[in-house]
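Much of our argument rests on the idea that a fold can be written as discrete symbols. Part of our work consisted of pairing the sequence of a single chain with a tokenised description of its backbone. No coordinates are needed to read the tokens, only the vocabulary itself. The record that follows shows the chain in one-letter code together with its fold in token form.
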Amino acid sequence: MISFRNISHKDISKVSNLRMLLLKNSSSHYGSNKVEELDSINNAFCDWLKINIENTNINIVVSMNDEGLLTSMGIGVIDNRAPIKGSLNGKVGWISSLIVHPDFQNNGLGKETLSHLIEWFSKKSVNKITLQSTEDGEKLYKKMGFNKSIENTFIKEC
């Protein structure tokens, strides 16, 4: 049986290890194939988790099986922006990560993890949610009511 809950401090290493599966990829702006770069990202992410685990504008949800194996994780972040169409209160949700362990993919865990984040955003009066997706995730997001934006994303490293 799979159960969902918010992250605790004891989950940090499991969560960071699962996230590294997504980041070991040089085809995205956030990924890399360089070991030293991945180590730096992982260490910084663990520090970020420790700092933000109690942040009320960040929700880190995990799912575990009965054996205690981390099966999925999702991170939702609330940005306070200038009001826009669909978000007159300025609250915009950002799904920063949604990852399902490879051994548990195609079993509905991605959808269920995403549903937990969407429900949390709704309770926080967030009416617009954005994300970036890999090709593998596009089908799920479309099925869950997300529309692909026609805007281009530009990234500059400073």
Observations:
- The chain has a mean pLDDT of 93.
